[in-house]
Design brief:
Number of domains: 1
Number of strands: 0
Order of helices and strands: HHHH
Helix content: over 70%
Strand content: under 5%
Shape: rod-shaped
Radius of gyration: 21 Å
Structural class: mainly alpha
């Protein structure tokens, strides 16, 4: 599920609920989505650090295996770059969701509807 799907779900549920259902549904959905993004971010970063530590430990403990060491240093480089890029994208989505929650916190129902409509067009 991505940010656009969360906002679409809030709009669809508000059609059934009426009143403040849009802002309540949107805020609840966005908070759950933000928590999920943060959890994924922590898991990715933890897995990346553990993998780098394990590979580096293997290289240090087996200094005579130069061919394996060269291969593992390449793996460390590629996995670190890829892991950082994945983490950057997750963090960007988390920050975007947090900003939307800040905007929705003090907005009226009409402002919430307008903001969500504009966001859905942009996403």
């Amino acid at each position: 599920m991505n940010l656009k799907e969360v906002l679409n779900a809030a709009v669809e549920s508000s059609d059934k609920g009426g009143g403040h259902a849009l802002s309540l549904g949107a805020i609840d959905g966005l908070k759950a989505y933000r928590r999920r993004q943060f959890t994924i971010f922590v898991i990715v970063e933890t897995a990346l650090v553990v993998a780098i530590c394990l590979l580096a430990t293997y290289i240090v403990l087996h200094p005579g295996q130069t061919a394996v060491a060269k291969t593992l240093t390449g793996v460390i480089g590629v996995s670190t770059g890829g892991g950082i890029e994945v983490a950057r994208r997750i963090w960007k989505e988390w920050a975007r969701t947090d900003l939307i929650l800040l905007l929705l916190a003090e907005a009226s129902e009409a402002q919430v509807k307008g903001l969500i409509d504009r966001l859905l067009k942009l996403l």
